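Memo subject: From amino acid sequence to discrete backbone structure tokens
Action wanted: Derive the backbone structure tokens from the amino acid sequence.
How to read it: Take the token row as a discrete description of the fold.
Attached in line: The record itself begins immediately under this heading.
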Amino acid sequence: MYSYFKGSVDVNEALKAVTAYSADESSDLSIKLLGMKIVTMETSEGQKEFQLHQYEFSGQDSKSMAKGAQFAYVPLKDGYIEIKSQCETAAELAGSELALSAVGLKLKS
């Protein structure tokens, strides 16, 4: 899923929010960072390189949710693109960055 927001984003803070649920002592949700990949996207500001962070969810509280997820933030001049995607299993994340990098953003005035 791609979303555009005006303003700026602190990528580190946004990613901390992703993993905050596993810090909740009442939760049995474990969130493991699987890795980070560099991906590019063609935007109205030209080619943008960004980091795609991939996670695996496990534990009792993950029973009814997708086990693989990835998040990225693409900074632009007046805003940013937030990218979120999920897979049934974390193994399915492998190679999915090809689909993400195939999408381009072109703004028309």
User: Anything to note?
Assistant: The first strand starts at residue 2 and ends at 6. The longest helix spans residues 11-23. The chain has a mean pLDDT of 83. Residues 2-101 form one domain.
